[in-house]
Amino acid sequence: MSLVPPPAPAGFMLPEPLRSLAEWGFALQRSLTADMREQLVLIRDGGGWEPVAAIIFAAFLYGVFHAIGPGHGKVVIGSWFATRRARVAHGLAACFLSAMVQGASAIAAVVLLAGAFALAPRQVMAQAAWLEAGSYALITAMGAWMLIQTLRGRASCGHDHSHDHDPSCCGHHHQHHQTEEKRTLWAMATAVGFRPCSGAILVLLFCVANSMLWVGVAATFAMALGVGLTVSGIGLSALGLNRLLERRVSQDSRMGRLLRRILGLAGAGAILMLGLILLLGVIQHGPALTG
C-alpha cells in the first residue's frame, strides 16, 4: 500500500497569521509523512537501525505539528482547564493519557481489522473511522454530566451549595471531590483519545503489510508522545489563564463563587455543544477519518 498523508480539512479557514502557520504545519506534516515512507521502505529492504531511529524521530515531530492543527481534543481539554480547578500534574497526565489512548486505539484498530479480519487498507480506514463517532458520543455524555454536576453546585466543593452550611465541611469533602474530579478528567482524556489518528493508521498499515508491526507500534507511540507534548502546552496555557483569574478575584467572595459557577457552566456547555455538533455531523454525513 502507499503511505499517503491525510489532506488538510476541507473548508479550513483561519485568520492571518494563524492560517499561514497552519498551512506551514500541514506542509511540514506532508514532508514528514514522505520521510517516514522512505524510511519504512529502507527498513523493509533491510536498512538496519538507522532508518528505524529516523522514522521514530519523524513520527515524533509529526505528532508535535499534527496537534497544532484543528482538532476537537485541544478544544475539549482547553475548555476543561480554562474553566475548572485542576492540578498541573493532573493536567499533564490527562494530556498525555489522551495522546496515548489515541495511539493505542490506532494500534488496536489495525491489529484487529487488518490482522485478524484481513481487511484491505481502505476498508480498515472506513471501519476505524467509526471510532470517531464513539469518541464524540463519549464527549457529549461527559459534557452533559459535567453540566448537570455544575447546575447541582458540585463543581467547586463536591456538595450542594444551595443552602447555608459550615464552611469547614468543605474540608471533609475535599478529598472525595478531588478523587471525583480526577476520575472525570481521566474519563474525558480517554474519550478525547478514543478517536485514532489517520497518520498513525497509515504507518501501521504499511508496517503490517510488510511484516514489521513492531516498527509501526514504536512510531505510533512516538507520534502520540509528540501529540501529548503539544496538547500539554495548550492545556497548561488554559490552566494558567484560570489561575490568573483566581488571583484577580477572591474565590471566597460572592463574586468569586459566582464567577467559578459561570466558568463551570461555560466549560461544560462548550464541551457538550462541541460533542453534539461533531456527533450530529457524523450521523448526517458519516465518519471521515482525516487526521
Residues in helices, as a percent range:
over 70%
Major sheet description: none
Q: What amount of the residues lies in strands?
A: under 5%
**Average residue-wise pLDDT:** 80
Which SSEs are present, and which pair or pack?
Elements: H1 18-44, H2 49-66, H3 72-83, H4 88-116, H5 121-128, H6 130-151, H7 169-193, H8 198-209, H9 213-248, H10 254-285
Short description:
By secondary structure, this protein is mostly helical. It contains 10 helices and no strands.
Describe the structure.
The structure is a single chain. This protein is mainly alpha-helical. It has a domain at 71-158 and 174-285. The protein is 76% helix and 0% strand. It is built from ten helices and no strands. The protein has helices at 18-44, 49-66, 72-83, 88-116, 121-128, 130-151, 169-193, 198-209, 213-248, 254-285. It is elongated and about 70 Å long. The two termini are 19 Å apart. The relative contact order is 0.19. Mean pLDDT is 80; it is low at 8-12 and 156-170.
